Amino acid sequence: MTERRSAAADPQPGRAGRGAPLDAQTSLRSAALWAPLGVALLVASAASDRVGALQVGLLLAVVAGLWQVVRSRAGHGLSARVPIVLVVPLSVLGAVQMPTLPAVEPPPPAAATTGLWLSHEEVMALPTSGAGWEQVRADATGDWGDADISDQKSDHDVKTLAGALYATRTGDDAMRAQVTRAIEDAVGTEDGGRTLALGRNLVSYVIAADLVGYRTPAFEDWLREVRHDELDGRTLVSTHEDRPNNWGAHAGASRIAAARYLGDTADLEAAADVFRGYVGERNVYDDFDFEGRKWQADPDAPVGINPPGATRDGVDVDGVLPDDQRRCGCNLDESPKEADYVWEALQGLTVQARLLERAGHPAWAWGDRALFRAVRWLEDAELPAEGDDTWVPALVNDAYQTSFDGEKAPQIGKNMGYTTWITEG
């Protein structure tokens, strides 16, 4: 009688019978096929924006391959076909049914910072010694003159700001009261002036009011209205939106300060768009009224600040402010002899940038770091800040961590000052 042998005891060559140990070479070949393939496909699918059954199947493929290796080395039986049979349909199914996740949203803008210019805590962290502080103290305790917003050369506004900084840092209530009276004295004095004067003089009063906590319905009503009052045929807002030069730059600084103080989010966002257009982002705003275009990198697409790498007739104009640089009285192929109007525009633009930054906007980065490029061009052209522009480099250096030439106690400007002190914190 012929002995009947068990299939388990006599497996076919190259195949593992039921209950028999898995052939190591077969396991390793299967693992070598599926594991790398699974890994590669997993990486590819992870790089896309799709997830689902495909990735589950591929993960099983990797696990199956590695599992076979482990089991074969441990001497346990496991059919190579089992995980593969499960994996292949899942992988194919996943290839057909791959749900798409919603597009990843960009991160929200940074939260607005307390304080238009500085918070109380930031002021209290600043030193009460050194050249910067001594300038604040001297101007705060000195003669401020008379309030007159219509006078575009007035410095009563900036010295009122010095008083607010001093009162906040020292807790001097008498100085705080003096600041309040100065702000109240300024209300209504814009009549008879131009929007250039209003743009230069308003911003420091608003920041001073914020620092000392001055807020009354009458002041808020005036501030709300003065932005739209017509002065010599223009308003503060229209000047900001029409003039891509120092007029518009100063108007923008005062407009932004007022909007932030009043909590006027709609006007703040509108002003931010104008700033972006000024620094070269024409896709955001391009309704300026440009005049001479000699210094424009592209006369058909004029901007407030020329773009990176810009040239005109072979001349480097990257960072040039064309609508103010045209007033230098020089040609492109000549070395400019002065840049007074350019630096004045930067007085307004740098104040806008800091105010916008504290409102949650990355203004210093807009226009491919336009303000950095503007100051760099001026320095390369050997046209450094002078006189009442010398406070500007401190703000730029603080924003970009640069070292443009500045002074320890620079002269106050037409709309701002004391920047070496406020950037010491």
UniProtKB/TrEMBL annotation:
<keyword id="KW-0812">Transmembrane</keyword>
<keyword id="KW-0456">Lyase</keyword>
<feature type="transmembrane region" description="Helical">
    <location>
        <begin position="28"/>
        <end position="47"/>
    </location>
</feature>
<feature type="transmembrane region" description="Helical">
    <location>
        <begin position="82"/>
        <end position="101"/>
    </location>
</feature>
<keyword id="KW-0732">Signal</keyword>
<keyword id="KW-1133">Transmembrane helix</keyword>
<feature type="domain" description="Alginate lyase">
    <location>
        <begin position="218"/>
        <end position="378"/>
    </location>
</feature>
<dbReference type="InterPro" id="IPR008929">
    <property type="entry name" value="Chondroitin_lyas"/>
</dbReference>
<keyword id="KW-0472">Membrane</keyword>
<dbReference type="GO" id="GO:0016829">
    <property type="term" value="F:lyase activity"/>
</dbReference>
<feature type="region of interest" description="Disordered">
    <location>
        <begin position="1"/>
        <end position="22"/>
    </location>
</feature>
<dbReference type="GO" id="GO:0042597">
    <property type="term" value="C:periplasmic space"/>
</dbReference>
<dbReference type="InterPro" id="IPR008397">
    <property type="entry name" value="Alginate_lyase_dom"/>
</dbReference>
<dbReference type="Pfam" id="PF05426">
    <property type="entry name" value="Alginate_lyase"/>
</dbReference>
<protein>
    <recommendedName>
        <fullName>Alginate lyase domain-containing protein</fullName>
    </recommendedName>
</protein>
<feature type="transmembrane region" description="Helical">
    <location>
        <begin position="53"/>
        <end position="70"/>
    </location>
</feature>
